[in-house]
Amino acid sequence: MHNIYVTRPELPPLEALLPSLEEIWSSRVLSNGGVFHDRFEAALTRHLGVAHLSLCTNATIGLMLALRSLGLRGEVITSPFTFVATVQAIEWAGLTPVFADIDPVTLNLDPRAVERVITPDTCAILPVHCYGHACDVDALEAVAQAHGLKLVYDAAHAFGVRLRGRALASWGDLSVLSFHATKVFNTFEGGAIVARDAPIKSVIDRLKNFGIVDENHVEGVGLNGKMNEFCAALGLAQLERVEAAIGQRARIDARYREGLDGVPGLRLQHLWPGEEPNHAYFPVRVGPDYGESRDALQARLKAHGIHARRYFCPLVSDLADFRDRPQVAPQPLPVAHEAADQVLCLPIYPDLGAADQARIIDLLRHGRG
Ligand SMILES: Cc1ncc(COP(=O)(O)O)c(C=O)c1O
To answer: Tens digits of per-residue pLDDT, 263-290?
Structure first.
């Protein structure tokens, strides 16, 4: 039995990277804004069609840098239905996370729920484009503007997604992408912060290099958030392949939709109007009428070597560091709890074979009860 994981990192052929590695080896410039960093940053800005972008070590550091660069103090409203890093970044930036409930269809932060938890201490909203699908960006922007709040998107899942013809990562004051090994686009580890204007990018660029201005001056509490030359060189090679990889994901997504159509108790996420998705994840909702609980289904798949994942269960608001702090969850989160109880993400990656996928579909269709 061979194991099939929820994802499998995409890589260019090793030979494609060797000339870049030779260049790095001979220059001995390994980090600190070398030529590959600058080439990749420029190429990625063009590829995504965004105004400004700053590469960084990973999205967790990117979120910390984004929040820090805006000089925020107080509470940040976010989604409990996310990876723990979203919320840990808020805490590391010296801010207090406050959870609001999500929308039952999109599984993204519900703008009306956000309004209900705004207090005089609220300084920002940090929504997550969960599974790479767009939040209700217009409604969130309206809430942010009405209350004078900053809007920082966790776009860790949303590489290459476009909404109404525009990069999803261009919405908000800042958006943060992840290039972790498990993502649609990877540089082993990495990330980027997308900014609307040059001055905020230059603050981020300074903060990601410890706040260093020049040999004699350091401004702000920075950190080491720099992307190194190896990751940047890999990023350049990956950029050439990512469109084809997203195309392969689209075909796998379509096969799941066809194969799982009409299975009682299984609900698939709808496709967003106006969105060009990246097919980063394939979540299914396992309802009470499926005949088997979500956890039992996950265990049965695992017994066949298929490692589907419960993204995101438990909710971050239920983790030990948050659940006993009334301030962080001032309102009940029923929609997020139901999603956390039902969701299961199926394997999806560009080279998932048709026979393997057919086996997964067959197990979901026929092995119940
Ligand atoms: C929603 C979300 N936010 C943030 C992160 C953190 O990204 P990174 O691993 O690049 O720090 C991840 C996953 O890794 C994520 O899924």
So the answer is: 999 999 998 899 999 999 999 999 999 9
Is residue 34 within 8 A of residue 84, CB to CB? The reply is no
| pLDDT tens sequence across 180-234 | 999 999 999 999 999 999 999 999 999 999 999 999 999 999 999 999 999 999 9
CB-ligand 1 contact for 57 (6 Å cutoff): no
326 pLDDT more than 90: no
User: What separation in Å is there between the alpha carbon of 84 and the centre of ligand 1?
Assistant: 8
Q: Which atom of ligand 1 is nearest to the CA of 179?
A: 10
Tell how far the Cα of 69 is from the centroid of ligand 1, in angstroms. 19
Of 213, 239, 265, the residue at which a domain comes to its end is 239
Q: How many angstroms separate the Cα of 87 from the Cα of each of 37, 253, 286, 332? A: 28, 29, 26, 18
Which ranges of the chain would DSSP assign to H, the alpha helix? Answer: 14-27, 35-48, 59-69, 84-92, 111-116, 137-147, 198-207, 229-239, 242-260, 294-303, 320-323, 334-342, 354-366
CB atoms within 10 A of CB 166: 13
Ligand 1 centre from 89 Cα, in Å? Answer: 10
In a shared domain, residues 160 and 195:
yes
Tell me: do 174 and 46 sit in the same domain: yes
Determine the number of helices (DSSP H) and then strands (DSSP E) in the chain.
Answer: 13, 17
CB of 89 closer than 6 angstroms to any ligand 1 atom? no
- What is the atom index within ligand 1 of the atom nearest the CA of 89? 4
Q: Compute, in angstroms, the gap from residue 23 CA to the centroid of ligand 1.
A: 30
Q: Domain residues for 112?
A: 14-239
Q: What average pLDDT does range 37-58 have in this prediction?
A: 98
